[in-house]
Amino acid sequence: MPAHVIVRDLRKAYAGVEAVRGVSFTIEAGEIFGLLGPNGAGKTTTVECLVGLREPDAGDIEVCGLDARLHPREVKQKIGVALQSTSLQDKITPREALRLFGAFYRERVAPETLLERFALVEKADARVETLSGGQRQRLALALAFVNRPQLVFLDEPTTGLDPQTRHELHAAILQMKRDGYTVLFTTHYLDEAEQLCDRVAIIDQGRIVASGTPRELIAEAHGLQSVSLVTSRPVDLARLGALAGVSDIVGMSTDGAGVRFHTSDAVATLGALTRWLAEARVEVIELQVRKGSLEDVFLGLTRSHEEAGGAKR
Questions:
Q1: 312: which DSSP letter?
Q2: Which of 78, 123, 160, 294 is the least crowded, having the fewest Cβ atoms under 10 Å away?
Q3: CA nearest 30: which of 171, 184, 212?
């Protein structure tokens, strides 16, 4: 089956500032594809170009076998979109919103079906202004499915939600895959990308800096391990950074007594660290070591790219 999305050398600038600089990727039919990046990296601009909300300055976009730049109306019939926030009139109800949105499409799903699928039956006739954040987000997902789409775009759908609601939306996204939908999913929560996505692309400063399955990207971290350290009093970060294998030190607390860092040689690093702390009479409150994660890869790639950009400037 051909890829549902093909993007080649996508470019978009605002007032001379390049937000997207030569982005290319593909999304295969039936997969959950994650587009990851820090705030301002170009994720939302990329999605908006794909769904026809913004006109790219250059590049080719194929969506569901169609040239999205030449046939934007036809593309909109085949896709569903849930952006970071969905603005609806406060007095409208979920049932009314689903009927209204459905009227824009040749094919549509009955509101009752979507209300049941996204657990909104009890709120079907309640005003949108009375819905909780999680209920509003489920309504946004329901609206994205009103036209029986082949491909669904979810732009940071879990931002600002409580853990329970995030868990419920994760289950809904996995159900989309089981039902045969293709999903493009943007997020800055690396744990959910690692859990949900078949493949990911990491975008930073408008460019794709890495892509592959989460497992492949983690494997490319060359055995990097993450260490979390909490001590009875702050430690000298310069001396910590001079220990064997230590890199990427990040403070975890405002008082400086908690730090996190990476090491390429956990045995050597922990040996030197414990000797140093014993000599300095600093008590270890907590010490955790774990294997590299997608978050570690993400931080390493985006930080190194930022440093490289700074050096060029």
A1: H
A2: 160
A3: 184
